[in-house]
Amino acid sequence: MLYRRLDAERETTERRLERALRSPGETPQESAERDAASSLHHERLAQLGSVEQGLCFGRLDFHDQAGPAYIGRLGLFDSDGDYEPLLLDWRAPAARPFYLATAASPEGVRRRRHIRTLSRKVVGLDDEILDLRAADGQQADLGLAGEAALLAALERKRTGEMGDIVATIQAEQDDIIRDELGGVVVVQGGPGTGKTAVALHRAAYLLYTYRQQLASRGVLVVGPNSTFLRYIGQVLPSLGETGVLLSTIGQLFPGIRARGADSREAAEVKGRPVMVDVLTRAVADRQRVPEEKFEVAFDDDVLVLDPDVVERARDKARRTRRPHNLARRVFVDAMLDALTERAAVRMEVDLFEGVPDIPLEAGEDPDAPVLDAGDRVEIRKELSESGTVAAALDELWPKLTPQRLLRDLFADAGRLLSASDGLLSDDDRGALKRPARSPWTPGDVPLLDELAELLGEDDAAEREARERREREERAYAEGVLDIMDQDEELLDEDQINIADILDAELFAERQERSSHLTAAQRAARDRTWTFGHVIVDEAQELSAMDWRLLMRRCPSRSMTVVGDVAQTGAPGGASSWRDMLGRYVGDRWRLRELTVNYRTPVEIMNLAAEALHEVDPRLRVPTSVRETGVPPWRAPLGERPLASIVDEEVAAADGGTVAVLVPASRLGAVRSELDGHGDAVSVLTVAEAKGLEFDGVVVLAPEEIVAESPRGWNDLYVAYTRATQRLGILYSAGRPTSTPG
Ligand SMILES: Nc1ncnc2c1ncn2[C@@H]1O[C@H](COP(=O)(O)OP(=O)(O)OP(=O)(O)O)[C@@H](O)[C@H]1O
């Protein structure tokens, strides 16, 4: 019945879309109407298309309610009659008992049913009777809801792409997903506790619940690398969401592709908060006062200024406290004034050179200027148009882009020393130094962003034109809204009155979106875009400078920060949330914890616990929900060919995914050794595997992984906890205490 309803709705929407597209759009007003309507219908169609698999996955029977409630991936309503809900969207408040009801606290629910479907066929049902009398033995110690369905979901083979968990969200996760929009929520949880899943479902929930606030500004989801973004890329569309930008920090400066990699040392230095002072000084260093007299060629002549004249112009510009490129105008004005004065004096001298003294007439002031104000204006104009003058001023206070300044800074030992003397050590500077043509790295991006703020952009003319355009669009959209208000034929059934949902501003933006780009796409192009909400995954990896960039993108501080400080591998990453976030939000953040591990079975977690103990003996591993009966295996590296070991793991995974995790120094060699294994096997460093999971994992040379970085034990803990089924360890010389046996 629900699928029939889905088909019917699809058909209606298609018809409406067709009609909208066929409408003439001869006047600008008509074409705006057409675009708005067709974008609404497009969006709805995409939504309807993304819920085909597992449309309905739950049913609730209540003690005191006549009919059952069905829970699914989106809401469907009875089209005729009184618009009764046929299927509840999982995010709707009425669907909550499906995730929260327990035998001890049944919330009026008599029975919870998990429905498994394949295409449009029901292939399985799991019932839980939430009746205290029937509760004995029903609830496991961990208080899991829908345990059978959950375990079935967890046993499923991994495909290399993350799937949604709407059918089996657990109570502690649900609580975080539906937390309010405002403020900073920090979700701390061990590996496999569903932090990523929770973060993405929270994005979908927030967009559903706070659509009006969020649709135009969009939601930014930040992940550690592009492999990870590909891994999670499919989860949101399957939840039916648009308006979400997935990005790494390295992709957040439009126009820059960070293709290079930093050494550990460079990454650490670039992430330090003191870099703000270094960059501020580097900018100030570009505002120069010459040591000697300053000479400017002009009009077959040379104008000479004393250094203190330049200094006064510089100080005047600095006193404005405006960014470098904007304060430059003040500097240039002051310099042109001074040069005009010099030029005028020169001209007067020239005028009278060789001319015999003319006796003064009565009342004439011997010191009165010969050139009048009009002459000076003329001279100033000529000066301001002179190429040589412009070049000379550019030397003293150049127009700068963030790219140029950073390139120059890292390529020139003198500049670097001047900007960082007393702030960085010689070793730090050595780590930063690089040739001018080096590729950008992810660690450069927050520095470029900082510089963009310090330098500013002199775009007054451009901004004014844009604002004028926006004003026109808004006025226009208001007109269109009036008309649409009267034409309900154009609207979706569940959007009774469009003005309830869209105000003119949002409509104008949507207009632009429909004809050009989505909010996410526009955000990706605009460095100064601010998002309605920002979600940061693997947030422990971010440096202080990364956080500064993100805070600029989210002035409302509506954020979800997800991570595990026990898994920090990045040299500039966090060991404590308080230390990292305190700088930006003080103690105005709320900590939520996840405690159950859905990924890694008990047998593997016992081993991972030993690595965690080395990180910090006070830390506890999360409790695993599953046992597989298969302990991790270990063998000496090199005893047998790696390729045949991996073949066995691929066979054991039986169509699932396998990863070989290696120390960075061995990556190239192992990749070529396993060349030919194709897509079945991923060879990755631990940093690359962060946040991912595989059915089988082989960790190669764990002792080298530990030795490779000061956070080596964290890395090993991450490596061990990537497996959903099997873990193997190939050790070389010696071995860290936490290899088994
Ligand atoms: N309620 C749930 N129902 C079904 N599967 C779940 C549930 N919660 C988590 N999972 C699954 O557990 C696995 C681990 O989840 P996820 O990757 O979100 O964990 P994580 O806390 O981000 O881990 P890490 O810290 O290692 O990155 C995923 O396969 C996810 O789909």
TrEMBL record:
<dbReference type="Pfam" id="PF13245">
    <property type="entry name" value="AAA_19"/>
</dbReference>
<feature type="domain" description="UvrD-like helicase ATP-binding">
    <location>
        <begin position="168"/>
        <end position="601"/>
    </location>
</feature>
<feature type="compositionally biased region" description="Basic and acidic residues">
    <location>
        <begin position="1"/>
        <end position="21"/>
    </location>
</feature>
<keyword id="KW-0547">Nucleotide-binding</keyword>
<dbReference type="InterPro" id="IPR027417">
    <property type="entry name" value="P-loop_NTPase"/>
</dbReference>
<protein>
    <submittedName>
        <fullName>AAA family ATPase</fullName>
    </submittedName>
</protein>
<keyword id="KW-0347">Helicase</keyword>
<feature type="binding site">
    <location>
        <begin position="189"/>
        <end position="196"/>
    </location>
    <ligand>
        <name>ATP</name>
    </ligand>
</feature>
<dbReference type="InterPro" id="IPR014016">
    <property type="entry name" value="UvrD-like_ATP-bd"/>
</dbReference>
<keyword id="KW-0067">ATP-binding</keyword>
<dbReference type="Pfam" id="PF13538">
    <property type="entry name" value="UvrD_C_2"/>
</dbReference>
<dbReference type="InterPro" id="IPR000212">
    <property type="entry name" value="DNA_helicase_UvrD/REP"/>
</dbReference>
<feature type="region of interest" description="Disordered">
    <location>
        <begin position="1"/>
        <end position="39"/>
    </location>
</feature>
<dbReference type="InterPro" id="IPR027785">
    <property type="entry name" value="UvrD-like_helicase_C"/>
</dbReference>
<keyword id="KW-0378">Hydrolase</keyword>
